[in-house]
Design goal:
The chain is of the alpha/beta class. The protein has helices at 15-28, 47-62, 78-92, 109-119, 161-164, 174-179, 190-204, 212-221, 275-285, 292-300; strands at residues 7-11, 33-37, 68-71, 95-100, 103-105, 126-130, 146-149, 157-160, 225-229, 234-236.
Length: 304
């Protein structure tokens, strides 16, 4: 069966990895498919043939599906490029699945997202459906097929236009958010709160080229919830490699293989966040448990 919801792929200059994602999208045969490819960087001549090859692969794999493309002449960068691409996508679609060029989905990701996009279509509290789960050792035995969190995991995800309209790319209101210590309502643990706050401030100042922390802040600001599957549905084949943008440090755990979700999907009895699971998601997606206390000590001493 073809995928009943639209899909957007975000690509740049990694043809071998992009080809793996494209193959999965082609097999899923979405009802509509979109492709964004950033332009080559002028200071990196090697980008030109790589970007050209990525675009050739996109057309080769997805033209039979009637792909709509946004191919940039100039490089917009990660933050602006992804933000503009998602605006372009959600201007045309009310909801959909988003895959980056190194996030290879298990085939079950597509029906998983499709079912939840429809189930929570009119629920403003649910803003994000994540598809990765590096903490699945702590969640794979859950009765339900997914659980709720405040963390928007973006290695394969889905959302709605109604949610994306609340995206504050410039993190408007962050000062008030921090002054009122609102983060304590959402993130368990003083060290964890300090770490996330530091990332938010660095993103707002432009010290981090991240759209994802702006999205994370936007979800907290709007008291939103995210969905995480009890098992990992995406393998990131790019994290820890030299051509990665923000995740160049080697991390074997982050390249965890994907598994298949079983259907029919079992839904949680209530919309609630488990603080213990939240900490496991934090350690898996933000800062390792053993590395957090040293970081916090340096932060408290003003050395971070």
């Amino acid at each position: 069966m073809s995928c009943s919801v639209p899909v957007l792929i975000l690509a740049f200059n990694r043809p071998e990895k992009t080809a793996k994602v494209l193959a999965q999208i082609r097999t899923a045969a979405p009802v509509r498919v979109y492709a964004h490819c950033d332009g080559p960087r002028s200071q990196y001549p090697a980008d030109l043939p790589k970007v050209a090859e990525v675009r050739r692969l996109i057309l080769e794999h997805l033209s039979p599906l009637g792909v709509k493309t946004l191919f940039r002449e100039k490089n917009a960068g990660l933050r602006k490029g992804v933000y503009d691409a998602l605006n372009w996508f959600f201007e045309q679609e009310e909801y959909g699945i988003i895959l980056e060029d190194d996030c290879v989905p298990d085939p079950s990701l597509f029906p998983f997202c499709a079912e939840l996009l429809l189930r929570y279509y009119d629920d403003p509290e649910i803003m994000h459906i994540g598809c990765s789960n590096l903490a699945e050792a702590n969640t794979q035995n859950l009765t339900a097929g997914y659980f709720f969190s405040r963390f928007p995991l973006v290695w394969g995800w889905a959302s709605w236009r109604r949610a994306w309209q609340k995206m504050a790319i410039d993190m408007d209101g962050l000062e008030r958010f921090e002054r009122n210590r609102e983060i304590r309502r959402f993130i368990p643990g003083a060290m964890e709160q300090a770490y996330i706050s530091t990332k938010f401030r660095a993103t707002q100042k432009g010290e981090m080229n991240s759209w994802a922390y702006s999205w994370f802040y936007s979800i907290l600001k709007n008291n939103g919830l995210c969905i995480i599957p009890k098992i990992n549905l995406v393998q990131n084949v790019g994290v820890g490699e030299a051509d990665a943008t923000n995740t160049t440090g080697y991390n074997k755990e982050a390249r965890k293989a994907s598994s298949s979700m079983h259907f029919p999907l079992t839904h949680p009895a209530e919309k609630s966040v488990n603080p213990k699971l939240e900490k496991q998601i934090f350690y898996a997606s933000q800062k390792k448990r053993l590395r957090l206390p040293p970081w916090y000590l340096l932060h408290a001493l003003g050395l971070r």
